[in-house]
Amino acid sequence: MEAIEALLTRRSTRNYKPNPVEQEKLDTLLEAARQAPSGSNNQSNHFIVISSRAALDELILLTRKALSGMDPEKVVYPALKNAINLSKKGGYVFCYNAPVLIVVANKKDYGNNMADCSCALENIMVAANALDLGSCWINQLRWLNEEPGVVEHMQKLGMKEDERVYGAVIVGYPADGLPKRNLMPQKGNEVTYIK
Ligand SMILES: Cc1cc2nc3c(=O)[nH]c(=O)nc-3n(C[C@H](O)[C@H](O)[C@H](O)COP(=O)(O)O)c2cc1C
Question: Could you confirm whether domain 3-9+23-51+93-172 is CATH 3.40.50.150?
Answer without folding.
Answer: no
